[in-house]
Amino acid sequence: MVWPLLAAVFLSVCFWGWIFGTSGGNFWWKMTAAGIILSGISLWLNRNDRRRDYDFSLRQAGFGLLNAAALYLIFLAGGELLRLVFPGSGENIGAVYAARTQLPDWQIGVLLAVIIAPAEEIFWRGLIQKRLAALTSPTFGLGLGAVTYALVHLWAGNPVLLVAAFVCGVVWGGLYQHSGSLAGPIISHIVWDITIFLVWPLG
């Protein structure tokens, strides 16, 4: 059925509008609240697929770690290229880190690892991409899922974040399509988030 998918996308647009389009509240707690609700909806709608979706193996963990490392290097090179070609892009990159001062680093790290990063994969890859792929094809579902994931970030008004979200959507979506499990994408997302936001920031 297409209606649960459309409703989920509409709800995500509303949440991202609240997170990025409104100035009140703490960014990290808003992301946490949205993640809990959206991942809860996804887990309920996919309640019959949980064993397959969360099949874990050391191989998938390894793929997740390698994926996170490759994605970080892509962003490292891409950030330098953007600064070289578009000198003003440094301000957009720096804006991505504006919310870092809203909580201590250790609290941000816990929220990213325990709720925010896993919740995004459970929702965007485990629900949106999966349903799109079932309605169309695996490749088209991956591409359209990545575009949708990027477009909800329009609320931030930051073109660098828009491109970053699309690249991440393609990379994590590709890993999910290849493995059929969310374990690898979740591990990759957690490691990449903590690395790029807290350990070795790019801005």
Structure description:
With 203 residues, the chain is mainly α. The chain is built from nine helices and no strands. The protein has helices at residues 3-21, 27-45, 50-53, 58-85, 89-96, 105-135, 138-151, 159-179, 183-199. The mean pLDDT is 92. Helix content is 79%, strand content 0%. The chain has one domain (3-199). Helix 8 (159-179) packs antiparallel against helix 9 (183-199). The termini are far apart.
What features would you highlight for this structure?
single chain; 203 residues; mainly alpha; 9 helices; 79% helix; 0% strand
**Structural class by secondary-structure content:** mainly alpha
The DSSP helix count reads 9
Distance between the termini: 42 Å
Spatial shape = globular
Largest sheet: none
State the total count of DSSP E strands: 0
Task: Give the low-pLDDT segments.
Answer: none
Helical proportion, percent range: over 70%
Estimated share of beta-strand residues:
under 5%
Count of separate structural domains: 1
Oligomer: single chain
Order of helices and strands: HHHHHHHHH
Mean pLDDT: 92
Determine Rg (CA atoms, Å). 16 Å
Task: Summarize the topology.
Elements: H1 3-21, H2 27-45, H3 50-53, H4 58-85, H5 89-96, H6 105-135, H7 138-151, H8 159-179, H9 183-199
